[in-house]
């Protein structure tokens, strides 16, 4: 979810269909679109500026946050996620100003999760403490690797030593509330040494860890190098082995794999991301930020997928003219929303409970959709899926092959939807 310093807010209260609307809550994702340097693998919406007009940027983030909060009719913000780009390059004053704007426009409970994505730096005594004073209470650190050759390949500006020092400082300032991103499946990476890095990380990390398999993105330097043959293509079988063995190591170390890529111990799950997988509402603020919410403040009862203008200068002009820089709005139909509930919910270990599903679709139960289908039955018999009194979820084995399970589940949902008795709900 974190892309740029976008503000993200997610609805944790049940989202209801027209006629049953309740005052809504959401999460907020501000995006800071600037980075120091382009990493070789990254295709996020980011810019390497000569200089940043921070005061103007801050003003626009504040304005857009206020506009979209009013438009959404959201009354309570459960979490805020400053993503990027590199939001740790923004000034703590900007972070504080955005949080203040949120708190003035909606209720931001004192215990809301406020996360900042932070890149490791070579400068000790960084501004992490100032971010804490500004209202940040959780950090997500882009560590990526503990091998200097790999870090160079990725085009990172930090060394393994910098990463560990930043991590130690973060843990001192935000005990129990530090997450690290760690990548796998890099070109030429081997299973044994990667597992060695993971074991080393376990000596240093806090209670939350995200494992991301490298996705080779068109348009990146890494993609070009692989195309030109100067680097070997990432090996998907080795990556699958790293993932399987890595998740086993983390389980052994007491981490719960609560989502396909996310691991937590001592209950340190990310509220913000959890709301996202539960298909809650969130507001995306800042250049290129994505959001999903119902513009109730404008009288609408349809949830929309929204994307803000990508390029920072254009986005700022639009915010100054219209109060927001929303470039694209796509109303989500009921089936589309159910597809999201299914695909996102199954990413978590809890899966989709019957109560959760019912909040989105009161008439067609999970058993109606999946109970009698032969292919789904096979997945249940193979032990990849579970459908019982709790709901529908992946087993430990199933979580690792979710994409292939969805190839059966999504068409089955579409078919059941076509065959259903049309609902009397307006707009249904
Ligand atoms: C929004 S990104 C970047 C956050 C921050 N600027 C940084 O670089 O650490 C969040 C995470 O996505 C992961 N990521 C980014 N590009 C990726 C790619 N092409 N394949 C796999 N993971 C990627 C990285 O682990 C990164 O830490
Ligand atoms: S990976 Fe992070 S720091 Fe690197 S270019 Fe992408 S957003 Fe910027």
From TrEMBL:
UniProt-annotated location(s): Mitochondrion
Keywords: 4Fe-4S, Chaperone, Heme, Iron, Iron-sulfur, Metal-binding, Mitochondrion, S-adenosyl-L-methionine, Transit peptide
Biological process per Gene Ontology, one example term: porphyrin-containing compound biosynthetic process
The keyword Nucleotide-binding belongs to this UniProt entry's keyword annotation: no
Top-level taxon of the source organism: Eukaryota
Cross-referenced PANTHER family: COPROPORPHYRINIGEN III OXIDASE, RADICAL S-ADENOSYL METHIONINE DOMAIN-CONTAINING PROTEIN 1, MITOCHONDRIAL
Protein name: Radical S-adenosyl methionine domain-containing protein
Originating gene: RSAD1
């Amino acid at each position: 979810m974190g892309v740029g310093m976008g503000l993200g807010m997610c609805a944790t209260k049940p989202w209801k269909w027209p006629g049953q609307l309740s005052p809504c809550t959401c999460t907020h994702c501000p995006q800071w679109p600037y980075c120091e340097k382009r990493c070789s693998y990254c295709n996020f919406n980011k810019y390497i500026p000569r200089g940043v007009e921070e005061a103007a940027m801050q003003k626009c983030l504040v304005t857009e946050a206020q506009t979209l909060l009013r438009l959404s009719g959201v009354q309570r913000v459960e979490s805020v996620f400053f993503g990027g780009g590199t939001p740790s390059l923004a000034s703590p004053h900007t972070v504080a100003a955005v949080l203040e704007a949120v708190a003035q426009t909606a209720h931001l409970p004192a215990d809301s999760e406020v996360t900042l994505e932070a890149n490791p730096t070579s400068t000790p005594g960084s501004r992490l403490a100032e971010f804490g004073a500004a209202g940040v209470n959780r950090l997500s650190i882009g560590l990526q690797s503990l091998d200097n050759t790999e870090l160079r390949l990725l085009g990172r500006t930090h060394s393994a030593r910098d990463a560990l020092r930043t991590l130690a400082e973060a843990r001192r300032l935000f005990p129990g509330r530090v997450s690290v991103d760690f990548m796998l499946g890099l070109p030429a990476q081997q299973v044994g040494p990667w597992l060695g890095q993971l074991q080393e990380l376990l000596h240093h990390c806090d209670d939350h860890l995200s494992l991301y398999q490298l996705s080779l993105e068109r348009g990146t330097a890494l993609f070009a190098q692989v195309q030109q043959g100067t680097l070997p293509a990432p090996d998907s079988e080795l990556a699958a082995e790293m993932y399987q063995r890595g998740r086993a190591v983390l389980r052994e170390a007491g981490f719960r794999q609560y989502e396909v890529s996310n691991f937590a111990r001592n209950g340190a799950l990310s509220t913000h991301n959890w709301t996202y997988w539960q298909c809650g509402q969130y507001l995306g603020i800042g250049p290129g930020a994505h959001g999903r919410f119902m513009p109730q403040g404008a009288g609408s009862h349809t949830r929309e997928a929204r994307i803000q203008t990508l390029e920072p200068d254009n986005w700022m002009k639009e915010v100054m003219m219209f109060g927001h820089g929303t470039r694209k709005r796509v109303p989500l139909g009921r089936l589309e929303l159910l597809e999201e509930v299914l695909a996102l919910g199954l990413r978590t270990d809890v899966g989709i409970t019957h109560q959760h599903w019912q909040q989105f679709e009161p008439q067609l139960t999970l058993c109606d959709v999946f109970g009698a289908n032969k292919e789904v039955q096979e997945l249940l018999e193979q032990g990849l899926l579970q459908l019982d009194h709790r709901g529908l979820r992946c087993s430990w084995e199933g979580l690792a092959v979710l994409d292939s399970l969805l190839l059966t589940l999504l068409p089955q949902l579409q078919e059941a939807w076509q065959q259903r008795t049309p609902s009397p709900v307006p707009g249904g």
